[in-house]
Design goal:
This protein has four helices and 29 strands. With 426 residues, it is mainly β. It has three domains: 70 residues, no CATH class; 74 residues; 274 residues, paralog of FGE (formylglycine-generating enzyme).
Length: 426
């Protein structure tokens, strides 16, 4: 009698067992179960062969043969995209149905997005998860992306929105490209309440509806003093230096000049300091156009169309009045009538970055002296070293629609108290 056994039990099937005369040639066959493979035939400890189908000569006595099987090992390959963005663990050879703990670790500057299979279908939206091995070789990929820095939060002025770096055409000269590094910008103008908190003076409120309106009737000197005093209040490095001022904390609002003063006009700026400052004109324009890097605006990595926007937040179909407080809606009941006033910050819709009033409400002081643009590319420009007027941008409650255009430039004496401002930080 020829008996055929299966090991492990239930992991395969055999054929050929039965009663045969001694010397008979018997064909024996082993068939593995799904996800198992045949290993060999054995009789006791003796291996008789490794072919699943083979001929066996019946001996003159009863014999028992065993067909041995083992689970198939499937290869699990793990990838990372981008390859230098992080690392993964858990790759190897596994059996069907085996539970595998996979881990994706993003390096500094990257964040985990998802795991995907070879077809790009999402497998998991968490970096660490248990994966059940299928009955085939499998490749999974951990998808990472460059981390978008979190917005900054100031206890005195609220949120500063992250603005990614980028390059843009600043006017109708295709060679006039400006590149700016990343920075953070306050989501709205400095309000009267915030100005009072830091400077101890509310400024003139003639055209205001309340303390949540932008601070106004502020000169450029006031604005840089505010920045330094705010930096001090939050333990940050001072950005500005003015000859003769050694203690910005002790500087009183009434001590700030209202006539042209050489030492203030010659103020220095430390762009590497982590404190607050006015935006450069280049930074202001990039933020106003929404730091737009959408494909329809970009050519070879340069935004070629943002400078044409008639107001910050424009998408080709929307209305200026929804985004800006300007001459056409700053009167009573949002009319074009006197008395015109500012409105509380954030009353209108924000631009693509979530920045409010980049057009209208009050003009924004910037760092730069005003001069004609040069006809060549610029990287992180800070304007000419001297001049007569400091650049203001964005238009105001009294501006016609043209003054709200992203590319519109204006300038005025830095000692003249008439405008507002917002701050940035790196």
């Amino acid at each position: 009698m020829l008996d055929l056994d299966v090991f492990p039990e239930g992991k395969g099937a055999v054929a050929g067992q039965g009663r045969y005369p001694a010397g008979a040639d018997v064909t024996i066959e082993a068939t593995p179960a799904d996800h198992w493979q045949f290993v060999n035939w054995t009789e006791g400890d003796e291996v008789l062969g490794t072919d699943a189908v083979q001929s066996y000569t019946m001996p003159p006595r009863d014999h028992t043969l065993t067909a041995n099987f083992e689970p198939i090992l499937y290869e699990l390959t793990l990838l990372v995209e981008p390859s230098d963005g992080g690392e993964v663990s858990g790759a190897g050879s596994y059996t069907f149905g085996q539970e595998i703990e996979l881990t994706a670790t993003a390096y500094d500057g990257y964040v985990f997005v998802k795991w995907v299979d070879e077809d790009g279908e999402q497998v998991s939206d968490v970096p660490d998860f248990s994966f059940t091995m299928p009955g085939m070789g499998t490749t999974l990929k951990a998808v990472l992306q460059t981390a978008v820095p979190q917005d900054l939060e100031s206890p005195h002025i609220g949120t500063l929105r992250y603005v990614p770096g980028g390059s843009y055409q600043r006017d109708d000269g295709p060679e006039n490209i400006t590149t700016v590094s990343q920075f953070y910008m306050s989501v709205h103008h400095i309000t009267q309440a915030q100005f009072l908190d830091i400077m101890g003076d509310p400024s003139d409120t003639t055209r205001s509806t309340g303390t949540d309106d932008p601070v106004q009737w502020v000169n450029w000197y006031d604005a840089i003093a505010f920045c330094n005093k705010l930096s001090l209040a939050e333990g940050k490095q001072l950005v500005y230096g003015v000859t003769g001022i050694t203690d910005w904390g002790a500087l009183e609002y009434d001590d700030i000049p209202t006539t042209s003063t050489a030492t203030w006009n010659e103020a220095t700026m430390d762009m590497d300091a982590d404190g607050y400052r006015l935006p450069t004109e280049a930074e202001w324009m990039w933020a106003a156009m929404g730091a737009d890097m959408e494909p329809d605006a970009m050519q070879a990595g340069i935004n070629r169309t943002g400078y044409l926007k008639p107001f910050a937040g424009y998408d080709g179909t929307n209305s200026l009045g929804d985004y800006a407080v300007y001459r056409g809606n700053s009167g009573p009941g949002d009319t074009n009538e006197e008395p015109r006033t500012t409105r509380p910050v954030g009353s209108k819709l924000p631009n693509e970055l979530g920045l409010y009033d980049m057009s209208g409400n009050v003009w924004d002081w910037t760092w730069d002296w005003k001069a004609d643009y040069p006809s060549y590319s610029l990287t992180d420009p800070t304007g000419p070293p001297s001049g007569t007027y400091r650049v203001v941008r964005g238009g105001s409650w009294g501006s016609f629609a043209s003054g709200c255009a992203v590319a519109y430039r204006f300038g005025y004496f830095p000692h003249y108290r008439y405008y507002g401002f917002r701050v940035v930080s790196r």
